[in-house]
Amino acid sequence: MVRGDAGRLPGRRELLAGVGATAGLLLLGCRGEPVDVREQAAIAAGGSRGYAGPAVELSFWTGFTGGDRPPMQRLIERFNREHDNIAVRMSVTRWGDFYQKLPAAVDSESGPDVAVMHADQLATGAVHRTILPLDEVTEALGLGAGDFSETLWAAGVFRGRRYGVPLDVHPLGLYYNRGVLAGAGLGDAALPRSRRDYLAVLEHLRQRGIQGSWVSPVLFTGGLMFQSLLWQEGGQLFSEDGARAMFNSEAGVEALGFMIELIRRGYSPRDVGQDADSIAFTNNRNAFIWNGIWMINSYRAVPGLRWGVLPVPVVGAQRAVWGNAHHLVLPRQPSTGAGQRRLRASVVFLAWLSEHSLEWARAGTVPARRAARESAAFRRMTEQAIFAEQLPAVRFPPAIAGVDSVRASTLDLAVNEAVLLRAAPREALDRAAREADALLADNLKKFARAL
């Protein structure tokens, strides 16, 4: 039995209090005289023609603290070699701290010139005027949906304006342990693509004493598995206007019920601790794990581990899989001559990095640029190419300001309680939806006139 304490999330009151504190902190920077972000965006668009001004140093903020840091550092070093009058310096902070620090730094005029943000954070950054609208920038650069995909391009839009240029997409996939499967007499022909196939393989493994698909009670990876299953069942997380939770629909109950079924049938331990599913996978005790593309390089680094990856199985009525995307953004700058020069130089860097997303794919991502995905070089990246097959089925978190905090303090707790068998799926989801509706109502009041 795996210890359950590691899989416990903070209590509801802890997280609900944290949401309020975070929102208050972020709003402090909006009480002063607002900067005309559209005027700054128009200045930045001038960088589409290049930058010929005096030498500038750009600050680039990311949350790439793991195996994705060296590939990005190599790209920056190459950019710096190719540009005499622009030098880029990357600062790295863990994502949880990154989203706390960025708005405060921008409001104090000490923020970065370019940053990376997840698609589900763009709306919050936009309502706080932390980042600039990029419609004029992308128009000047000649970028559009045809350069990426309709889904990826749309993920950068909030309230009719563009705030991000997609750099990559990182969905879930189904990793499988070849050694565990071979030990149970199974080869590639048994790899599951559907609900029926998946359950059949897991039953075969169970009869040989193997718990083959460990279900995590925390966001990584159980929460993301739930969201994928919810969309497969035709459900939604929240209403499009951000007014109410929808994850407690019949689709949500069915999705969470499937996860509970894996536990009750003995295909998963009952109390899986944080990262225990992945540790068991690398120790040849777990056959399958729903995990993100970011694990490719981690699993490659495990000596003797024999593994592969598939698109997630179609458990529900349609193909769908959770995904997120890193977007390049331009934070608001001080209204000075130096700030305006850096805005133009920042667009040079943003455009260059977008054009070189194939090299970035080596960090364990699917490149956003269509040309990169369709290249022979990318097709040789076997695992990344398999993840890319799912792009038409990828569902992104909704573009709702503050929704990430709402989900974390409501839905994530409901999944945690149900997977730990402390509450029935419907009970847990209904309670979380009521709490989410209250938080969403507060968000609508706070952010209705923010732009």
Keywords:
single chain; 451 residues; D-Maltodextrin-Binding Protein, domain 2; 2 domains; six-stranded mixed beta sheet; five-stranded mixed beta sheet; 13 strands; disordered N terminus
Structure at a glance:
The protein contains 21 helices and 13 strands. With 451 residues, the chain is an alpha+beta fold.
Describe the structure.
The longest helix has 23 residues, at about 425-445. The protein is built from 21 helices and 13 strands. Mean pLDDT is about 90; it is low at about 1-5 and about 10-35. By secondary structure, the chain is α+β, with helices and mostly antiparallel strands. The chain has helices spanning about 10-25, 35-45, 70-80, 95-105, 120-125, 135-140, 150-155, 180-185, 195-205, 220-230, 250-265, 275-280, 295-300, 335-355, 355-360, 370-375, 375-380, 380-390, 405-410, 410-420, 425-445, and strands at about 55-60, 85-90, 115-120, 155-160, 160, 165, 170-175, 290, 305-310, 320-325, 325-330, 365, 395. Strands 7, 8, 9, 10, 12 and 13 form a six-stranded mixed sheet that branches. It has a five-stranded mixed sheet with strand order 2-1-3-11-6. A two-stranded antiparallel sheet has the order 4-5. A hairpin with a 2-residue loop joins strand 4 (about 155-160) and strand 5 (about 160). The protein folds into two domains: about 5-10 and about 170-325 and about 400-440, 3-Layer(aba) Sandwich (D-Maltodextrin-Binding Protein, domain 2), CATH 3.40.190.10; about 35-165 and about 325-390, 3-Layer(aba) Sandwich (D-Maltodextrin-Binding Protein, domain 2), CATH 3.40.190.
